[in-house]
Amino acid sequence: MQHLALIGFGAISRSLVATLCDQPDAGLRALSLLVRSAPDKAHDAATQLCAPHGIAVKVYTDLADLLAAQPDVVVECAGQPAVAAHGEAVLRAGIDLITASVGAFADQALFDRLKATASGTGAQIILPAGAIGGIDALVAARLSGLEVVTYTGRKPPSGWAGTDAENRVDLAALTEPTVFFEGSAREAATTFPKNANVAATLALAGLGMDATRVRLIADPHTRENTHEYLVKSQAVDFSLSLTGKVSPLNPKTSLSTAYSLARVVLNRSGAIVI
Ligand SMILES: NC(=O)C1=CN([C@@H]2O[C@H](COP(=O)(O)OP(=O)(O)OC[C@H]3O[C@@H](n4cnc5c(N)ncnc54)[C@H](O)[C@@H]3O)[C@@H](O)[C@H]2O)C=CC1
Ligand SMILES: O=C([O-])CC(=O)C(=O)O
């Protein structure tokens, strides 16, 4: 039976909770949420999802209080700054941390610090595939010797609104798909913290933050988030294209991200890990 804790209760968290409530194999008995504001509203919304399944909900505004309740695992679904703010305390408490905002680890000092803390306490930092997939094949290919990993992320202009893309291109005036960023995974994840976490995931699975090449496209002809990547290695070459439906709760986020996190949580309790 699991006591699940979530940092953030936005688009991903809400879909994740709704999904896990419907999965008896998840064995959820308690849900703890860390929010920054409106804890009563979060409590009501989460209770609506959880109460019919007998799952108790508690909402916190202070991480120390949440950790004192000793959750089995903490899932960060709040944004890169939340990994920097809270990651270390979670791991220091010996609790495994699943991070949606993998791009936070483009900050090498943060990555090194959290990894050292995890090694010290035996807790694990678990990086989900998120909006992409095929990470198993990429890690396996790395072990054989990787040559190239290139990623292209394509979203409708609305998915790039409020980001640095606005300084690079007039999103509202676009009539054709437009590449507005080319660079490393580190630059992409740092410059587009709400849109390019997947580039960091590919980097950590594969060739690293600096050698993983990234292109980002605003496409006025699409309503979906497309993630394409190409891998060349000693053992296998492959390319993958995922067309993600956009989360109805957040136009920047692919709906599949929450299901990827649900898979990670389910794999912690089921007899079969897949
Ligand atoms: N790995 C992947 O494939 C993906 C990762 N992401 C990451 O997940 C994050 C969350 O995505 P969404 O749920 O769509 O965003 P959202 O904006 O819908 O929800 C985030 C929630 O977290 C809250 N929050 C922010 N900082 C907090 C803190 N320190 N403590 C408690 N709550 C806090 C916000 O108030 C908001 O309610 C994104 O910012 C991004 O970093 C998003 C999409 C895909
Ligand atoms: O959900 C997506 O399409 C990917 C995303 O925002 C990210 O990697 O940060």
From TrEMBL:
<dbReference type="GO" id="GO:0016639">
    <property type="term" value="F:oxidoreductase activity, acting on the CH-NH2 group of donors, NAD or NADP as acceptor"/>
</dbReference>
<dbReference type="InterPro" id="IPR020626">
    <property type="entry name" value="Asp_DH_prok"/>
</dbReference>
<dbReference type="GO" id="GO:0033735">
    <property type="term" value="F:aspartate dehydrogenase [NAD(P)+] activity"/>
</dbReference>
<protein>
    <recommendedName>
        <fullName>L-aspartate dehydrogenase</fullName>
        <ecNumber>1.4.1.21</ecNumber>
    </recommendedName>
</protein>
<dbReference type="InterPro" id="IPR011182">
    <property type="entry name" value="L-Asp_DH"/>
</dbReference>
<comment type="similarity">
    <text>Belongs to the L-aspartate dehydrogenase family.</text>
</comment>
<dbReference type="GO" id="GO:0050661">
    <property type="term" value="F:NADP binding"/>
</dbReference>
<keyword id="KW-0520">NAD</keyword>
<dbReference type="Pfam" id="PF01958">
    <property type="entry name" value="Asp_DH_C"/>
</dbReference>
<feature type="domain" description="Aspartate/homoserine dehydrogenase NAD-binding">
    <location>
        <begin position="8"/>
        <end position="128"/>
    </location>
</feature>
<feature type="binding site">
    <location>
        <position position="131"/>
    </location>
    <ligand>
        <name>NAD(+)</name>
    </ligand>
</feature>
<feature type="domain" description="Aspartate dehydrogenase">
    <location>
        <begin position="174"/>
        <end position="261"/>
    </location>
</feature>
<feature type="binding site">
    <location>
        <position position="197"/>
    </location>
    <ligand>
        <name>NAD(+)</name>
    </ligand>
</feature>
<dbReference type="InterPro" id="IPR002811">
    <property type="entry name" value="Asp_DH"/>
</dbReference>
<dbReference type="GO" id="GO:0009435">
    <property type="term" value="P:NAD+ biosynthetic process"/>
</dbReference>
<comment type="pathway">
    <text>Cofactor biosynthesis; NAD(+) biosynthesis; iminoaspartate from L-aspartate (dehydrogenase route): step 1/1.</text>
</comment>
<dbReference type="GO" id="GO:0051287">
    <property type="term" value="F:NAD binding"/>
</dbReference>
<comment type="function">
    <text>Specifically catalyzes the NAD or NADP-dependent dehydrogenation of L-aspartate to iminoaspartate.</text>
</comment>
<keyword id="KW-0521">NADP</keyword>
<keyword id="KW-0560">Oxidoreductase</keyword>
<dbReference type="InterPro" id="IPR036291">
    <property type="entry name" value="NAD(P)-bd_dom_sf"/>
</dbReference>
<keyword id="KW-0662">Pyridine nucleotide biosynthesis</keyword>
<dbReference type="Pfam" id="PF03447">
    <property type="entry name" value="NAD_binding_3"/>
</dbReference>
<dbReference type="InterPro" id="IPR005106">
    <property type="entry name" value="Asp/hSer_DH_NAD-bd"/>
</dbReference>
<feature type="active site">
    <location>
        <position position="227"/>
    </location>
</feature>
